[in-house]
């Protein structure tokens, strides 16, 4: 049952914090009263503005967090740099061993695979409390961090360079990866733990120090993770600033992005802010990884197994209340199966009820912020005013207790035209709205799939190999993630994760992503008794 908190005054935060919240905070060693320090660079501190963590389910203020002052930010960057200077000399497999311990520290907080309903899924519960996603997804997010740590432990013994054949006798060329420097991770509210995990794991394996600026609306998740990571670093005699934390707002983000002491900025967020981040980092010749908007489509062919496609599309569109970068926002149905598919999909939508995301069995939690309701309502208004048919949903839940949180109805709409140039197809609305169009030929659907600015994830439902070949080939989907009989969301960590076009071309997590977190040197070594020039150039002076 949701409890609607009384107005929380600063002085009596302790007394009024709900049991629902205080149990989770206490289990992770987070204070339930007073202000919490939001800066860690070897020491916990924070004397900047106070930021509020607000529960999206109940509207309750969970904590007041002290962000970094400008001087503290400067100091944290300097400490992180010093930590890098130390850490780069620690052998990579030893760095891997630290990651293994971090993995163990996290796994104790996410044992869902082995012991259901165990209190060790506290970190997952905190994600649910602060971000609003349902508990199984909160715990799954911690699992994603655990998985990437496993991956990076192995990587710490496999970050190989290459030996290249030289055209000159007695010469060898080595391509050598070395640690890069300070990596800033600017993460978003929707994956407040896992996306940091992707970056931290690769960055640490590569010998860098990280500076994490999480979303200002999910500071508690960041503080809880940093407590786990820093205790392991300190226990191993490493500088804590190998994994620094800065809670802050826009100005803090700008200062980090502009800082010449930050070699790589890994940013997850909107296309609008990503464009500014990209340009700013490029203007100082820094490195950048961008994970921006997704506007992902699923295409269902007549030969698809609908009993597989339906629940996957349902999860892709409604899971996380439509707040994954990979959420399914566009659904292209072949004319022959469209009526049946839509009827069955609507039945699934009708079965979904909003609820406390902490309670097992709830499938629909709130949107993360109140502002997101406005974005949702604006998109619904646009659909209605432009002649779309709303098949289901379209409203906010306004009855108690849901009026205290940010609950909206998952929505299916058929826009008037499938023209991808229209605003509704072009724009990523970060809410559970699924726009549907009907096609006759796969080529037409692929054209629509590719006809938007974004290019993160895409999914084709078919049993026909010819369709598969087309879809993953040169004239197929132009997204970074191109799935077959798998939904658009819920990628594993093993492959590189990221999108093309206005999604920013960034790649994180698995695959070759680690190669961005190192500086590469091409080293030509001459072990002969002569010093010939390449390409046979003769530069001998005659005296
Ligand atoms: C995001 O939404 O920013 O593929 C990341 C997925 C998750 C990660 C999403 N593994 O849906």
Automatic annotation (TrEMBL):
<protein>
    <recommendedName>
        <fullName>aldehyde dehydrogenase (NAD(+))</fullName>
        <ecNumber>1.2.1.3</ecNumber>
    </recommendedName>
</protein>
<keyword id="KW-0560">Oxidoreductase</keyword>
<feature type="domain" description="Aldehyde dehydrogenase">
    <location>
        <begin position="48"/>
        <end position="520"/>
    </location>
</feature>
<comment type="similarity">
    <text>Belongs to the aldehyde dehydrogenase family.</text>
</comment>
<dbReference type="Pfam" id="PF00171">
    <property type="entry name" value="Aldedh"/>
</dbReference>
<feature type="active site">
    <location>
        <position position="291"/>
    </location>
</feature>
<dbReference type="InterPro" id="IPR029510">
    <property type="entry name" value="Ald_DH_CS_GLU"/>
</dbReference>
<dbReference type="InterPro" id="IPR015590">
    <property type="entry name" value="Aldehyde_DH_dom"/>
</dbReference>
<dbReference type="InterPro" id="IPR016163">
    <property type="entry name" value="Ald_DH_C"/>
</dbReference>
<keyword id="KW-0520">NAD</keyword>
<dbReference type="InterPro" id="IPR044638">
    <property type="entry name" value="ALDH7A1-like"/>
</dbReference>
<dbReference type="InterPro" id="IPR016161">
    <property type="entry name" value="Ald_DH/histidinol_DH"/>
</dbReference>
<dbReference type="GO" id="GO:0004029">
    <property type="term" value="F:aldehyde dehydrogenase (NAD+) activity"/>
</dbReference>
<comment type="subunit">
    <text>Homotetramer.</text>
</comment>
<dbReference type="InterPro" id="IPR016162">
    <property type="entry name" value="Ald_DH_N"/>
</dbReference>
């Amino acid at each position: 049952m949701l409890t609607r908190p009384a107005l929380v005054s600063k002085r009596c935060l302790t007394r009024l914090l709900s049991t629902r919240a205080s149990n989770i905070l206490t289990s992770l060693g987070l204070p339930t009263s007073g202000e919490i320090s939001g800066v860690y660079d070897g020491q916990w501190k924070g004397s900047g503005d106070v930021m509020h963590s607000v529960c999206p389910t109940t509207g309750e203020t969970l904590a007041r967090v002290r962000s970094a002052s400008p001087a503290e930010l400067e100091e944290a960057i300097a400490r992180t740099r010093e930590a890098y200077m130390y850490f780069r000399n620690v052998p990579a497999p030893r760095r891997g061993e630290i990651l293994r311990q971090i993995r163990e520290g996290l796994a104790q907080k996410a044992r869902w695979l082995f012991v259901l309903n165990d209190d060790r899924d506290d970190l997952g519960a905190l994600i649910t409390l602060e971000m609003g996603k349902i508990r199984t997804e909160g715990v799954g997010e911690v699992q994603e961090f655990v998985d990437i740590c496993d991956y990076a432990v192995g990587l710490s013994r496999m970050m190989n360079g290459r030996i290249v054949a030289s055209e000159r006798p007695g010469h060898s060329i080595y391509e050598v990866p070395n640690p890069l420097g300070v990596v800033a991770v600017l993460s978003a509210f929707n994956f407040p733990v896992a996306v940091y995990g992707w970056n931290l794991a690769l960055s640490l394996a590569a010998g860098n120090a990280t500076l994490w600026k999480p979303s200002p609306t999910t500071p508690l998740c960041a503080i809880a993770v940093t407590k786990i990571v820093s205790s392991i670093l300190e226990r191993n005699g490493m500088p804590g600033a190998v994994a620094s934390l800065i809670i802050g707002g826009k100005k803090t983000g700008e200062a980090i992005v502009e800082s010449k002491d930050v070699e790589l900025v890994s940013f997850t967020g909107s296309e609008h802010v990503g464009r500014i981040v990209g340009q700013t980092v490029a203007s100082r010749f820094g490195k950048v990884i961008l994970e921006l908007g997704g506007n992902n489509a699923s295409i269902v062919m007549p030969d698809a197994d609908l009993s597989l496609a339906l629940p996957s599309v349902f999860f892709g569109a409604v899971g996380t209340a439509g707040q994954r970068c990979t959420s399914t926002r566009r659904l292209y149905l072949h004319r022959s199966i469209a009526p049946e598919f839509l009827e069955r999909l609507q039945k699934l939508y009708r079965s979904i009820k909003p609820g406390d995301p902490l309670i097992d069995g709830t499938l629909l939690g709130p949107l993360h912020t109140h502002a997101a309701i406005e974005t949702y309502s604006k998109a619904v208004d646009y659909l209605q005013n432009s002649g779309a048919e709303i098949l289901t949903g379209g409203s906010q839940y306004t009855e108690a207790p849901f009026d205290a949180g940010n609950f909206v109805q998952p929505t299916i709409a058929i826009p008037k035209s499938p023209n991808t140039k229209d605003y509704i197809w072009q724009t990523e609305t970060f809410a559970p709205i699924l726009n549907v169009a009907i096609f006759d030929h796969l080529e037409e659907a692929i054209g629509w799939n590719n006809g938007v600015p974004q290019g993160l994830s895409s999914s084709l439902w078919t049993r026909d190999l010819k369709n598969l070949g087309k879809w993953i080939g040169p004239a197929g989907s132009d997204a970074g993630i191109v799935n077959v009989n798998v939904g658009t969301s819920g990628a594993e960590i093993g492959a590189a994760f990221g999108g093309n076009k206005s999604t920013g071309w960034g790649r994180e997590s698995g695959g070759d992503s680690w190669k961005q977190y190192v500086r590469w040197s091409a080293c030509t070594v001459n072990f002969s008794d002569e010093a010939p020039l390449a390409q046979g150039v003769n530069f001998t002076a005659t005296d």
